[in-house]
Amino acid sequence: MLIANATLPDGRERDVRIADGQIDAVEPSLSGEPDIDAAGKRLFPGALDVHVHFRQPGYSHKETWETGSKSAAAGGVTTVVDQPNTDPATVDGAGFDEKADLAAASYVDYGINGGVTADWDPEELFDRPLFALGEVFLADSTGDMGIDADLFADAVARCATSNRNAKRSDDAAARAAEHDVTITVHAEDADLFDSSVEGVDAGGAGRDADADLWSAFRAAEAEEAAVERAVEVGTGQGTAVHIAHTSTPEGIDAASAGGATCEVTPHHLFLSREDADELGTYGRMNPPLRSEERREAVFERVRDGTVDMIATDHAPHTREEKDVGLWDAPSGVPGVETMLPLLLEEARQGTLSYERVRDLIAANPADVFDLPNKGRIEEGRDADLVLFDPEDAREIRGEDLHSKCEWTPFEGRQGVFPELTLVRGEVVYRDGEFGDAVGRNVRER
Ligand SMILES: NC(=O)N[C@@H](CC(=O)O)C(=O)O
Ligand SMILES: [Zn+2]
Ligand SMILES: [Zn+2]
């Protein structure tokens, strides 16, 4: 396949040739009849979203690998990493294998994380093509997988001594170049939640309350404290720590100072407590929405490169499940299809550069999680590509999206959506139509 005259994220205009699923050449001019004339369009590396909840096995009424991965493909996401709070939870070999069978239905490439609970089996997990450990819950969230300090320390230590890559490769050089298992952490310290918040103990009262009370309850201070603890334990053992969904400037700075990597979600980047009233229970998620002041400080850290990547924490729940009182509603919002469109709209407006967006959604996650075939438009890498018209913004509407939940916290905002998404050279999405479910586990090559 030949894509001609595409503008790359850095502004260079190039022809791109694809062969055997990989990028074969990137040149100012390549011979041959183009399959796609991309004049005036931008070509991006496909986005990696290292934090999704596709809900299978166990909760297929919320999402499935098919619907979640179609939503990803239509939003320009070509690799997703699924989190372990399914049923069964992905905490042992049988749980991993069950999820791996279901994930074969994916339209995009994927990683499968293993979780930590009192009865997890690290040896069985490390024996399998695991993406990373995580998200490890330092406080309860959807799935009630919160763990105590001792178990967390134990999990970190096992990552350091997993020897997973030594087992998986005979080549000493390849072994040395690979990282050991990274631990991804949901960092909130429940001891610092504010139980004086009205309605917390009322067991289902506060039906008319909006998500601002949730933000008051799961206080901002709880993040920084948990990040500090995670980073301290991680550095002590020499284990790479990645902090999931950092939502405060304090949390981001603590991760960065401690040598951990971190991600920010689109909802913490674009929404704040000022939106809580309008969102109602649909604005309840963990960690919760923060003040407008903190949101702006988070945005600044995304712009200046302190934040490593954007990841969605795509956490769909049905409308029926959300349409109850604040204290009964499940936490979480969908986001995999709107992440890149929202960021490309920022680039269109000039508030983030195209190069920064590329780093946040592709180059950095590929580097941090050791995926040398992903994340860049470079000869020899996988042809995971997204083509879009940079001026073609449209209104985001839940009913147009492909997640099973059919709603979005970004209703009515502008987004620049892809026209074409390729996974290893295969068309998985084009102008509203889907190709084949070609997704593969990125740790199985
Ligand atoms: N973020 C959320 O509020 N919910 C997530 C779990 C999580 O990421 O903590 C979910 O699985 O629903
Ligand atoms: Zn979480
Ligand atoms: Zn999550």
UniProtKB/TrEMBL annotation:
What cofactors are annotated for this protein? Zn(2+)
Chain's gene name: pyrC
**Cofactor mode of binding and number, as noted:** Binds 2 Zn(2+) ions per subunit.
Task: Specify the superkingdom.
Answer: Archaea
Which species is listed as the source? Answer: Natronoarchaeum philippinense
Q: Where does the Amidohydrolase-related domain lie?
A: 43-395
What the protein does comes down to:
Catalyzes the reversible cyclization of carbamoyl aspartate to dihydroorotate.
Q: Which GO terms describe its biological process?
A: 'de novo' UMP biosynthetic process; purine nucleobase catabolic process
Q: Which GO terms describe its cellular component?
A: cytoplasm
Pathway info: Pyrimidine metabolism; UMP biosynthesis via de novo pathway; (S)-dihydroorotate from bicarbonate: step 3/3
A GO molecular-function descriptor: zinc ion binding
For this protein, the record's CDD domains field holds:
DHOase_IIb (cd01318)
Which residues does the record give as Zn(2+) 1 binding sites? 51, 53, 135, 313
Q: Which UniProt keywords apply?
A: Hydrolase, Metal-binding, Pyrimidine biosynthesis, Zinc
Q: Which reaction does it catalyse?
A: (S)-dihydroorotate + H2O = N-carbamoyl-L-aspartate + H(+)
Q: Which PROSITE patterns match?
A: DIHYDROOROTASE_1 (PS00482), DIHYDROOROTASE_2 (PS00483)
- Enzyme Commission number, as recorded: 3.5.2.3
Question: Which residues constitute the catalytic centre?
Answer: 313
Listed binding positions for substrate are 53-55, 85, 317
According to its UniProt record, which protein family does this protein belong to? Belongs to the metallo-dependent hydrolases superfamily. DHOase family. Class I DHOase subfamily.
Name it. Answer: Dihydroorotase
- Residues annotated as binding Zn(2+) 2 are 135, 186, 245
InterPro entries referenced in this protein's UniProt entry, alphabetically:
Amidohydro-rel, DHOase, DHOase/Allantoinase_Hydrolase, Dihydroorotase_CS, Metal-dep_hydrolase_composite, Metal_Hydrolase
